[in-house]
Amino acid sequence: LQNPETIGFQAEARQVLDLMIHSLYSNKEVFLRELISNAADAAEKLRFLALGNEGLYEGDSDLKIWIDVDKNARTLTVRDNGIGMTRQEVVDHIGTIARSGTRKFLESLTGDQAKDSQLIGQFGVGFYSAFIVADRVTLETRKAGVPAEEGVRWESDGRGEYRIATVTRPRRGTAVTLHLREGEDEFLDPVRLRQLIRKFSDHIPIPIVMKKESGAGEEVVNKASALWTRPRDEVRPEEYEEFYKHVAHDFEGPLAWLHSRVEGTSDEYTLLLYLPKRAPFDLWDREPAHGVKLYVRRVFIMEDPKLMPRYLRFVRGIIDSDSLPLNVSREILQENRALERIRAGAVKKVLGLLEDLAKNEPDKYRTFWQQFGTVLKEGIIEDPKNRDRIARLLRFASTRDESGEVSLADYVARMKEGQEKIHYLVAENAQAAKNSPHLEVFRHKDIEVLLLWEPVDEWLVAHLTEFEGKPLQSVAKGELDLGRLADDNEKKAQEVVAQAFQDTLDRIRKALAGRVADVKLSQRLTDSPACLVLDAYGLSRRMESILKASGQ
Ligand code: ADP
Ligand code: MG
């Protein structure tokens, strides 16, 4: 051992570990999926880097994952010959939980174990799940391409601290050894392990190898073929679900998925894309940790949140292209025309999946909308080419239906005889929207008004000016024009009233001079005596406050 060092876990890491052990115990076997998943990621990273540097294989390009038990020592080892880690990488990736959402995650815990285990799942479980069943974990690793003397040994009991040292390690890759807790002997049983591997990791495209029962030689336990290359009708739903948990780092299954092979004139690619059941913690971060994974002819190239437009940043899964060049850098990929076409194709497929859910599986669509609706709204602004399709997927609350499930199509279908516009109100919050005096005349005339109150809504209505030929009109802006909905008698009555109030208006104008642009008689109100209105092209109140908040 060289340069041994003892380092304390970050307080947050310690807390997460502790929680994991207690809250996840009922699902303890997930640790195996997590360790295999890391080993598979490491193999895929090596395969990609070796495309540009064959030497990294060190003469061994046969990538595998080995699972070994030692019944006497009561240890279980998951080993790979993947990319491996340097000492610094071990400290950075294993010694700390450097996830952006950690604090937020800890803050959202309730103390109720059942609920919290869901949260932990959402957070991703990872390497630390080993401590659910082990009271000591040893990790040995050596990075591909570095001398054997630069191996690393890491060990911890998962409580306060870990030890790390430099060791000689002729084998490239990583071995994680679990010293099983009292009572966890089921994980020393090869039959049980095979069963778990088939359940969790059948689809992993790297062979998972165990010693043969007879003791002589080894055998591959999983299917080890990329799941997405198999025909759709030969993949069981459970297999799709397990694959999702692997690619998405999720603990729960997906809400829905699409699996499709596209054979166009210039591109051929396969999509296996999923919608999660829940928003990840970093949904609102500038640089989310995860995204869709790009493969070229089964070789993992990169995982990049930018493979999908921002408004679909919650989509997970893989895109595997047959037509992109293998030896490309990230930078080149970002500007590759073929990749642009593939992205556009993937976006269309995802919108198709959402349309299908909205139509045929309303409960699922409701879940989707609750989790990701706010993000999807950004698409109206970000993706003008698909604006009509996205508009159809939007859901709102309205004066008629507060459930928040009114589509623009529903609204249009309910429009009154003679109604020409889609009326909406943007307010600070739901309460303010419902109680706005601007709604009085619409209530009185039984005209539905869409109620919006999310920060993105202001931008949404600025970009979505019409739907199916019907203009969207704010109830708070400009002249109240109810079109043919105002009847002749009303118009006559208004003229009479206007005459009668001429002097009053002049007096109010004088009194408020410089503080308001104008004072007008209004048909908006039926109960309130007065309200503030914006001129047709003016900034709305909410926009004004947003601009003020940002210092403009
Ligand atoms: P995640 O896989 O979601 O990143 P984990 O806790 O499972 O989170 O793993 C943390 C990090 O540790 C990985 O991202 C990777 O950098 C590193 N790591 C874990 N296991 C291995 C392994 N077998 N080989 C190489 N690196 C690994
Ligand atoms: Mg992992």
From TrEMBL:
Main location: cytoplasm
UniProt keyword annotation of Manganese present: no
Record's keyword terms, sorted: ATP-binding, Chaperone, Cytoplasm, Nucleotide-binding, Stress response
GO MF terms, alphabetically ordered: ATP binding; ATP hydrolysis activity; ATP-dependent protein folding chaperone; unfolded protein binding
GO cellular component: cytoplasm
Gene3D superfamilies associated with the record: 3.30.230.80, 3.40.50.11260, Heat shock protein 90, C-terminal domain (1.20.120.790), Histidine kinase-like ATPase, C-terminal domain (3.30.565.10)
Positions of ATP binding: 34, 38, 80, 85, 100-101, 122-127, 174, 330
Transmembrane segments: none
InterPro entries cross-referenced by the UniProt entry: HATPase_C_sf, HATPase_dom, Heat_shock_protein_90_CS, HSP90_C, Hsp90_fam, Hsp90_N, Ribosomal_Su5_D2-typ_SF
SMART domains hit by this protein: HATPase_c (SM00387)
Span list, region A: 1-330
Cell location: Cytoplasm
Residue ranges annotated for the Histidine kinase/HSP90-like ATPase domain, each copy included: 27-184
Source organism superkingdom: Bacteria
Quaternary structure note: Homodimer.
Family, as annotated: Belongs to the heat shock protein 90 family.
Protein task: Molecular chaperone. Has ATPase activity.
Protein's recorded name: Chaperone protein HtpG
Biological source species: Methylomarinovum caldicuralii
